[in-house]
């Protein structure tokens, strides 16, 4: 079904990495009330699988932002399509992202959330693209560093397709 996609990171590798990240989150947030904030749509799979490795009482919220439209290059323009349902003042907030590319989406997001005075605001991302210039970004929990290629699968899309691949892959030429 996905013959046109080359596997970069297998489902097994993803799960092993999420288990490590979940264990670190469990340790760091012990005794705190954690609110995990997923960035739609890309982060929906990471969120679901990472959360299952977090052994704490967790609450969830989601934001939807758009930075790409139908192109594969970041425009630098971020639109909030859906804001959080909850207030985050005095909450421990962990943003969960699929991938950090230009970091523009995230910078905008962190800024707009930090003025709401959370008790803490940190970031978890499954993928970080190397070889990309970006503003300094502190990623407390990061999964894999990948080369600056356009990847799909495990929540990531190309024009809304391929999100359901259980692995991270690269589209064929
Ligand atoms: P950034 O603002 O450039 O860091 O990218 C923000 C969003 O663009 C990510 O959360 C992804 O949804 C999407 N994105 C970035 N790189 C890729 C890619 O290689 N494949 C698919 N989506 C991507
Ligand atoms: Mg996206």
Summarize the structure.
This protein is an alpha/beta fold. Helices cover 21% and strands 32% of the residues. The strands form 2 sheets. It has a 6-stranded mixed β-sheet with strand order 4-3-2-5-6-7, with helices on both faces.
Give the neighbour order of strands across the main sheet.
Answer: 4-3-2-5-6-7
Mean pLDDT: 92
Number of helices: 3
Q: Which residue ranges are poorly predicted, with pLDDT under 50 across at least 5 consecutive positions?
A: none
CATH topology: Rossmann fold
Q: Which ligands, by name, code or SMILES, are bound?
A: inosinic acid, magnesium ion
Strand content: 25-35%
Q: In angstroms, what separates the terminal alpha carbons?
A: 17 Å
- Our count of domains comes out at 1
CATH architecture assignment:
3-Layer(aba) Sandwich
Largest sheet: 6 strands, mixed
Percent of residues in helical segments?
A: 10-25%
Secondary-structure-based class equals alpha/beta
| Shape, principal axes of CA atoms | globular
The CATH class turns out to be Alpha Beta
Record field, number of beta strands: 9
The SSE string, one letter per element, is EHEHEEEHEEEE
């Amino acid at each position: 079904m996905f013959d046109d996609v080359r596997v970069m990171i297998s489902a097994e590798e993803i799960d092993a990495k999420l288990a490590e990240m979940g264990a670190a989150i469990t340790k760091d947030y012990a005794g705190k009330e954690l609110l995990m904030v997923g960035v739609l749509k890309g982060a929906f799979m990471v969120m679901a699988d990472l959360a299952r490795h977090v052994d704490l009482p967790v609450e969830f919220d989601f934001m939807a932002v758009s930075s790409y439209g139908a192109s594969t290059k970041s425009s630098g323009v971020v639109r909030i399509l859906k804001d959080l349902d909850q207030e985050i003042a005095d909450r421990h907030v962990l943003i969960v992202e699929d991938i950090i590319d230009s970091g523009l989406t995230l910078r905008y997001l962190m800024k707009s959330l930090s003025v709401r005075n959370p008790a803490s605001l940190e970031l978890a991302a499954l993928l970080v693209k190397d070889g990309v210039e970006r503003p300094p970004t502190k990623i407390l929990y990061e999964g894999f560093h990948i080369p600056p290629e356009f990847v799909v699968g495990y929540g990531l899309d190309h024009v809304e397709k391929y999100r359901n691949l259980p692995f991270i892959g690269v589209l064929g030429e």
